[in-house]
Design goal:
- By secondary structure, this protein is α+β, with helices and mostly antiparallel strands.
- It is built from two helices and four strands.
- The chain has one domain: 2-Layer Sandwich (Translation Initiation Factor IF3).
- The radius of gyration is 11 Å and the shape is globular.
Amino acid sequence: MDIATINVDKTLDTSGLSCPMPLLRTKKALKEMSAGQVLKIIGTDPGSKKDIPEYGNKDGNEFLGMQDVDNGSTLYFIKKG
């Protein structure tokens, strides 16, 4: 899937937060969303590169991908199951 074409329903900025806060905020945001909606997470914590993709495929959710951007952040996309 080309992440440039993903329609995002909600954006969560966890920049500057360190583990485990990005993952905890991601879990909370997904709970507030409806099935089929897509969450975009912006993060700077290196640990999130492992944690968020792993969590993204749990509980019926689908991890759609991630992308590093020039400012040192990483974008993650999860579709709520």
